[in-house]
Amino acid sequence: MNLYPVRAIYMAEMARTRRTLLQSVVSPVISTSLYFVVFGAAIGSRISEIGGVSYGAFIVPGLIMLMLLTQSVSNASFGIFFPKFSGSIYEILSAPISYLEIVVGYVGAAASKSILLGLIILGTSSFFVPLEIAHPFWMLTFLVLTAVTFSLLGFIIGIWADGFDKLQLVPLLVITPLTFLGGSFYSIDMLPPFWQSVTLANPVVYLVSGFRWSFYGISDVSLGASVAMILFFLAASLATIAWIFRTGYRLKP
Amino acid sequence: MNDPIITIDGLNKTYEGGFQALTRVDLTIQRGEIFALLGPNGAGKTTLISVVCGLVNPSEGHVTVDGFDSVRDYRQARERIGLVPQELTNEAFETVWNTVSFSRGLFGKSPNPAHIEKVLKSLSLWDKRHNRLMTLSGGMKRRVLIAKALSHEPRILFLDEPTAGVDVELRRDMWNVVRGLRDDGVTIILTTHYIEEAEEMADRIGVINRGEIVLVEEKAALMKKLGSKQLTLQLHSPLAELPPSLAQDELSLTADGFELVYTYDGRQEEEGRGISTLLTQLEQAGISFKDLHTRQSSLEDIFVDLVKERS
User: Fold this and answer.
1) Domain check: are B162 and B239 in the same one?
2) Are the Cβ atoms of B55 and A5 closer than 8 angstroms?
3) Residue-number span of the structural domain to which B182 is assigned
4) Which residues on chain B are in Cβ contact (under 8 Å) with A11?
5) N or C: which end of chain A has fewer CB within 10 A?
6) A8 vs B105: CB contact, 8 Å cut-off?
7) Mean per-residue pLDDT for B173-193?
8) Long-range interactions of B258-263: CB distance < 8 A, separation 24+
């Protein structure tokens, strides 16, 4: 692997984040903080503890996961979509670099941004609620794996999208609803039995559950199921990207 | 000169919708030359360049760049190539310095600020290095694209319509830059609509029409072979008709009888009946003239004739 092109793409993407600091960093931090104020402090004070954890603290992993999924997808999809939109993708495609190097550059930058945001929000949440992280290694593992996996998904969306509306389609209509319904704000034990079974078909449940377990040792599904689900997503995304580059789908006529 | 740097062999390209953009293209570009590829809109110029540069997958055929297969050995092939695209495509919010440095890194080269400085100065971009691309004029953006293509020190430079929409002064500046690159040993392939550009700069001309290479020729030889010349003689007194001793296909008399027009190319001279023979014949026939002027057909005339002939 030639590291110069990877570094060039990575640094260019990170520079874009610095240029758009308000949109890239400040905006998600503020919106997540609003969730803490509304659900954690205002409404949460009237909700009893869940699994021995205060409601405000209980929603922290879910909120971080919500931000992680949406930001990973948005950052990565925009990162590759914009050169396509502006036409400057010609330079990437004519450069002496492998597909792997292109993906590592773009996805690495998008995942880095999301991880950084996740850690900022984790820090911010400690101002609102008392936090504990029971399994720091697993917390970081879930954070990194989720950011990378959903950045890969974002990269796929960025290649697939042929307009800004499609770029927003998946984050708004798929990722956000699945995250809201995936136990970010509640334990699935709180649902009627039928809806509990339905919810288990939502893949985000496994991600939120695993991530929450790394904080408080409580989960809706087993750790093994959570790890298996994230690895399955990772493998599926990698396979799709390999197919895109092999066929030149929406990149090379 | 036979030192090919690019060899295109049996190249076909059919797009998904069934449009055949290239048909059995065979072409060899010699090391160090300026090769101009001419052709009308939609002839296949950009597709041909795109296949060589890796932007479009060929349907059939092979491209070899400095001995490396453009698909199998894409790293070695592409690192030798710089491409200036037709469209003004760039990252609007980046600065000139950053975008040119980015291109160098993208092509796998270690940072070299001295080289970037040299390139920017040679293109009169040094003063604009901290400017965002969105603030530059069209001509300056075009220069930035050239700077990006030169950032990794390519041995081959593709210029796809490099001076489209560029004013005359800037166009001449660019020609000087291109000549300087050729002097440094860079092979240059340019596509253009400006025949004047090809005529001014190219060593060899290729004409592509409807996806087929119609002709490849040294520019001088092409001009000699296909370019006709006209000698017009203004007579002292009008002629009613040409004397029988002067009757030949190449010579005609204007309606008012005051002008003799002699149309010729390289062949007449070789056959021993060129201008000097004509002038001798005129003297012998007692025909005198008070003035003369010549006109040589331009590459544009040749190109238009060729394309018309093949359509």
Assistant:
1) no
2) no
3) 4-224
4) 102, 105
5) N
6) yes
7) 87
8) B258/B234, B259/B232, B259/B233, B259/B234, B259/B235, B260/B232, B260/B233, B260/B235, B260/B287, B260/B289, B261/B230, B261/B231, B261/B232, B261/B233, B262/B230, B262/B231, B262/B232, B262/B233, B263/B228, B263/B229, B263/B230
Q: Which of residues 161-190 of A touch B (CB under 8 A)?
A: none
One domain, residues B188 and B245: no
Q: What is the CATH number of the domain that holds B234?
A: 3.30.70
ipTM of predicted complex: 0.86
> Given pLDDT bands bounded at 50, 70 and 90, which one contains residue B240?
confident
Read off the pLDDT of residues A225-247 as tens digits, 9 standing for 90 and up. 999 999 999 999 999 999 998 88
Domain boundary among B179, B208, B224: B224
Kindly state whether residues B142 and B254 are assigned to the same domain. no
Is the same domain home to B153 and B201?
A: yes
